[in-house]
Amino acid sequence: MKAPVKVTDFPGLVLRHRGKVRDMYEIPGYDDILLMVATDRISAYDVIMDDAIPGKGEILTQLSLFWFDLLGDIVENHLITADVEKYPEACRPYAEQLQGRSILVKKTKPLTIECIVRGYISGSFWSAYKKDPVVCGFQLPAGMKESDKFPQPLFTPSTKAELGDHDENISIEAMEKIVGSERARKIAEICIALYQKAADYALTKGIIIADTKFELGDHNGELILIDEVLTPDSSRFWPVDKYEPGKSQPSFDKQYLRDYLSSLDWNKTPPPPPLPEEIVEKTRLRYEESVQRITGKR
Known about the structure:
The chain has 298 residues and is an alpha+beta fold.
């Protein structure tokens, strides 16, 4: 197995941003495109772990490419190509490193909010519901159990925090004050449609998409889908055959890692604890199974 890619460095390209997982580069001579590279870094509770998950960046890229293609009839996306042979000349010296974990994208202005769609009650929404049935402005049904399905998918935006800080759930009304009521309506409409089509497809592959986070950006005044799409980093994937409301569910995402970290005496702030080999390997296997089930490819 290849060593994990924790950080990239491409002299001749201009590092524009290093996120929790992705490194974004500008390419000299090209003002309207960016190179997005998915590393093997993994974060939990908004903290980047010191240990990486081998091959994770390639899995995220493969899944995103699959979903970009499947969902292209709903909204345009930022993908130009994932074929390294078609990248600008300045990228060629790094072709081997870029193969399978990078895409060339249109330069866009990301929205200042996170676009979350929830089909089932879990995570922070479940924690909030236990205290008050009104969550982020939604009056939720009484008597819901953990992992229950909502009557219909909910669009629940959040603020977009700086690296190391925590996103904060907000109401639709609060979102309208940030982006305007008409754009807020359009964003919600797009995200619900994306989720519904993806969730329906995933069920045919034995996977429940409990919730997911989309990224939208503005490209020449139009909303387009950007960043990663429906990966184990941005979504909760549950196996249909083991789904049982009333408790947390087994998953094909990084919930396994979160559960391990929650068992430790760690305050969820840097520095992160070291990850045992078993945790790294079992996390990797869950990511691999998600891409195999959804795309049918190994």
